[in-house]
Amino acid sequence: MSRHRWSHAAVVVASVIAAAAVMIPGSAVMPEPSYPVRSTASGSDTPVLSVFALSKYVALGSSYAAGPEVRGLRTVCQRSADNYPHQVADATDMRLSDVSCSGSRTSNILRVPQRSLREPQIAAVTPDTRLVTITTGGNDLDYMSRLLALSCANVDIARIHPLTAKSCTRPHSVRSDPTPQAYVAVERAIVETVAAVRARAPRAVVVLVDYVPVLGRDDRTCPGLPLTPAQVASTRQVYDAMTAATARAAAASGTILVRASKAGVDHGVCSKTPWVNGFGQGGVSYHPNARGKAAVADLVLATLSQPSTVTDFLARGVVVSAPVPSRSPLPSR
Questions:
Q1: Which of 2, 105, 134, 230 lies 20 to 30 angstroms, CA to CA, from 254?
Q2: 6 Cβ partners below 8 Å, 6+ apart?
């Protein structure tokens, strides 16, 4: 980054810190971020976001962080190159370690490696980590597997995309709705995850990012949502309870929460501008599409540019190293 850009960033950041002087660093209570931040500026050209440049960023979580696609999958975890962690890292010039993994439960972040992975995701968090984003909890509640199983049971597989049809031919059991205790367990697991991150990286800012909704505010049924009215109501209830558990975990742990759930209420699968793929329509069913990934990235970037987040980041000890001048060898004696 050029000296001019750092100088420009320093002036803006100083103003931001002054404005945030009455805020408590690390507090989960903050203004709703403006959206989107990349409509007028992109990447590290945004002066406030420049303070994050060159710092280590670790992305933890399940498929809604990994951003699976039918094409262009990068790893066994079905991580895509345009998922929200990659877009955030690209926009801030941060050094990304993306260990998000499709199908992961919170236990896979903390203790149990997935599939052929050698370590749980938390191993990527090291003392030099400065930002961690976490999207988790859905698979703990079988939210997506239940939704997919219901949809498979309701469609003629000859009329949907071949990849989805192939998935529907595998055995799928429709699980019962989670119990109240299951939501409490998810809340506690997320709090435990935040604590584990902070123990490994005390200087990191931690951001919880909840799930983009499949069901929008007024979604009932459409070609991309093959559910009965009762199943729609049940799915909405599970999603709302899951989102509430995440919010409670954020409050209990004093963690910043990015509410993709709130921002996406008018972008459900049946809307004119959905943030998720419809069932059997060519993408990974009920997962964020390109529009949804970009929207979540913008929400995270807007949150990072908030005065309270910048203050927290700087208060935790960011160090901007000045270039070391070259020296001539000492004369021999």
A1: 105
A2: 50, 320
